[in-house]
């Protein structure tokens, strides 16, 4: 069996952090078996290296290795991609197609971003894990496959299970062994090592001298939060390599390349609060809409009684409580938004709404119809407005906007296409 250091060198894994070494060690230990593995960790920590190690050290190393990004495949086609389809199964299916589970028979499938799978696809995947069976889209024939499944996700799976976005039974099937890769901020001794490796690679690539960091720049590098992990560090190294003429970088220069440095201290705000911020705003909006609907119904009721009886005083007396309720609400709203003259009595409110001309039989319910039209509140417009607002707030970053809206990135992409944003 190869040593941990030899495996890391072979697969380009840099660092000597004990947590990283433990993750690589677990991958080496489970590789000869056929048990399912779930790789967890934040985005950008290098989760894609673990499945490659497992496959190359297993008895399936001569079989196919297929990596599938579940979050990048549209919801309507992911079943076809994974399990295949029959000719004529849906519009555009002009011929039979073999899915990844059929093609990778005898090999390994790496399901990246498995937490983004639709619930219907999760049911199909569970069947493959339990007995190796699957059915093509548009077929009734059960087929067998023999694949090793390694999955990865940056989603908090217990939160996803709690919100019913991921099946609990599938989670336990996938995570027979769970391998957690630590975030870069927990590997402080590895940060400068990684930066030097990236700087050397870019110097070779762009045929220029290698950039070096001063001592104060190294300290700044190690204190930074690195929310984007290794991917973000590599991006920073490439920017500096290309843009800076002085090849020795101090802390002041490096500071200009680190975004939101003041906001990258360890966070104490729970992720649950972040997820609930937008949902609370949405609940308030719905409450306002339903209150408006109730007020419109009350006004319609008063108007109809007034039109039918023609006795203003009697209608006022019978509905005194309702009139006072509406009037107090209007007065409160006007005080909140602007100061304007308001009627001093509820009788004046009634006189404003009563048409001065005689009402014809055909026009008797014309005013009620206008209220009914105003009552129709378009959730379509509100949804469009909220999506626009979230995209603007996150500068067009769909993933961040989808998290704020409480929907999957695939659903947001479909909405953007639907509304032609």
3D structure, described in words:
The chain is α/β, with parallel strands linked by helices and 421 residues long. It has 20 helices and nine strands. It has helices spanning 4-10, 18-30, 49-56, 78-83, 100-103, 119-131, 157-162, 168-174, 188-206, 215-223, 229-243, 251-255, 271-309, 312-318, 320-337, 346-353, 366-375, 379-393, 398-405, 409-418, and strands at residues 37-40, 65-69, 108-112, 133-135, 142-144, 148-153, 177-180, 212-213, 248-249. It has a five-stranded parallel sheet with strand order 2-3-6-1-7, covered by helices on one side. A two-stranded antiparallel ribbon has the order 4-5. α9 (188-206) crosses α11 (229-243). The two termini are 54 Å apart. Residues 265-271, 333-357 and 359-377 have low confidence and may be disordered.
């Amino acid at each position: 069996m190869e040593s941990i250091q030899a495996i890391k060198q072979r697969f380009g894994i840099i660092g000597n952090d004990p947590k990283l070494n433990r993750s690589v060690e677990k991958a080496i230990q489970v590789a000869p078996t056929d048990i399912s593995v779930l790789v967890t960790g934040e985005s950008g920590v290098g989760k894609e290296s673990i499945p490659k190690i497992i496959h190359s050290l297993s008895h399936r190393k001569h079989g196919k290795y297929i990596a599938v990004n579940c979050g990048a495949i549209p919801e309507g086609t992911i079943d076809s991609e994974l399990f295949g389809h029959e000719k004529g199964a849906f519009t555009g299916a002009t011929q039979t197609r073999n899915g990844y589970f059929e093609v990778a028979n005898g090999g390994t499938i790496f399901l990246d971003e498995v937490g983004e799978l639709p619930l219907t696809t999760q049911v199909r995947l569970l069947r493959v894990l339990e007995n190796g069976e699957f059915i093509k889209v548009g077929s009734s024939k059960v087929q067998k496959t023999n694949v090793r499944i390694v999955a990865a996700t940056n989603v908090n799976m217990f939160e996803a299970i709690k919100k019913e976005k991921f099946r609990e039974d599938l989670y336990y099937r996938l995570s027979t062994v769970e391998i957690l890769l630590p975030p870069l901020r927990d590997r402080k001794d590895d940060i400068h090592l990684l930066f030097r490796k990236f700087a050397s690679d870019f110097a070779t690539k762009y045929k220029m001298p290698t950039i070096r960091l001063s001592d104060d720049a190294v300290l700044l590098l190690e204190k930074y939060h690195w929310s984007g992990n290794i991917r973000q560090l590599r991006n920073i190294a490439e920017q500096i390599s290309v843009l800076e003429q002085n090849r020795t970088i101090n802390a002041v220069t490096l500071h200009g390349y680190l975004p939101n440095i003041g906001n990258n201290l360890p966070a104490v705000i729970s992720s649950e609060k972040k997820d609930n911020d937008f949902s609370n705003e949405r609940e308030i909006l719905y409450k306002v809409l339903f209150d408006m609907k109730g007020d419109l119904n009350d006004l319609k009721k008063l108007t109809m009684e007034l039109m039918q009886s023609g006795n203003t005083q009697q209608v006022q007396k019978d509905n005194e409580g309702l009139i006072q309720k509406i009037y107090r609400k209007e007065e409160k709203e006007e005080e909140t938004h602007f100061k304007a003259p308001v009627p001093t009595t509820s009788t004046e409110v009634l006189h404003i709404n009563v048409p001065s001309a005689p009402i014809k039989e055909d026009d008797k319910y014309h005013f009620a119809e206008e209220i009914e039209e105003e009552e129709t509140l378009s959730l379509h417009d509100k949804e469009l407005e909220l999506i626009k607002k979230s995209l603007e707030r996150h500068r067009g970053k769909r993933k961040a906007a989808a998290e704020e809206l409480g929907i999957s990135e695939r659903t947001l992409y479909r909405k953007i296409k639907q509304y032609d944003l």
